[in-house]
């Protein structure tokens, strides 16, 4: 049976943004390698990882993920990574109110400077620390709804909702673009490329 005989193949550039220590790198490592380190060194500049998932309808989704550093001294580099991105995950820590404020500033920047049809997801991480929660789910969800964002709470440590987060992003991107991704800048429909050019390149 041929690869993805009934489904489609999509490719996205995705960037993670958020304050340092909210768990961006841990989310990516859980998603890509199903691995969690209790202690991780801070990302310097940005890290690149890739992951492919297959959805229930046999659609294959390839994510090219840029995990950006959260330290203020690297903030000026962020546009290099979110420029041309199809999707962004803005992460905050449910135990740190200031991290949500920082996430909101990233959302404002993306809405001003990123691609006009970028799909943005607000992600409240560290739900395994529920006893230390200070950011209420309803407050963050209301902000997301008011600003046209996707919303999900996750735990990189327990793996709760991590894959669901990325699946939700693909489904929204598919809806936003009418099920088509027509060029490199706004995402690639690899099956369409193969039909038009004889190869998915």
TrEMBL record:
Biological processes, Gene Ontology terms: protein transport; vesicle-mediated transport
Highest taxon of source: Eukaryota
Name of the protein this chain belongs to: Ras protein
Coiled-coil regions listed: none
Native species: Absidia repens
InterPro entries documented for this protein: P-loop_NTPase (IPR027417), Small_GTP-bd (IPR005225), Small_GTPase (IPR001806)
Record membrane topology: Lipid-anchor
Subcellular location: Cell membrane
GO CC annotations, alphabetized: endosome; plasma membrane
Main localization, broad class: membrane
NCBIfam families linked to this entry: small_GTP (TIGR00231)
Keyword tags: Cell membrane, GTP-binding, Lipoprotein, Membrane, Nucleotide-binding, Prenylation, Protein transport, Transport
A GO molecular-function annotation: GTP binding
């Amino acid at each position: 049976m041929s690869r993805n005989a009934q489904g489609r193949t999509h490719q996205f550039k995705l960037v993670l943004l958020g304050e340092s220590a909210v768990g961006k790198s841990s989310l990516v490592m859980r998603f890509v390698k199903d691995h969690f380190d209790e202690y991780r060194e801070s990302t310097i500049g940005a890290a690149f990882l890739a992951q492919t998932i297959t959805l229930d309808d046999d659609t294959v989704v390839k994510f090219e993920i840029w995990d950006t550093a959260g330290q203020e001294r690297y903030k000026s580099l962020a546009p290099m990574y979110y420029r041309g991105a199809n999707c962004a995950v803005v992460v905050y820590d449910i135990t740190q109110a200031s991290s949500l404020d920082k996430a909101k500033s990233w959302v404002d920047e993306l809405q001003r400077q990123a691609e006009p049809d970028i799909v943005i997801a607000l992600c409240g991480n560290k739900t395994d620390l529920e006893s230390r929660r200070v950011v209420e789910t309803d407050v963050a969800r209301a902000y997301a709804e008011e600003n046209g964002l996707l919303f999900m709470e996750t735990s990189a440590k327990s793996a709760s909702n991590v894959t669901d987060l990325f699946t939700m992003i693909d489904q929204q991107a598919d809806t936003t673009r009418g099920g088509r991704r027509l060029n490199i800048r706004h995402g690639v429909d690899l099956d369409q490329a193969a039909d038009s050019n004889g190869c998915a390149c």
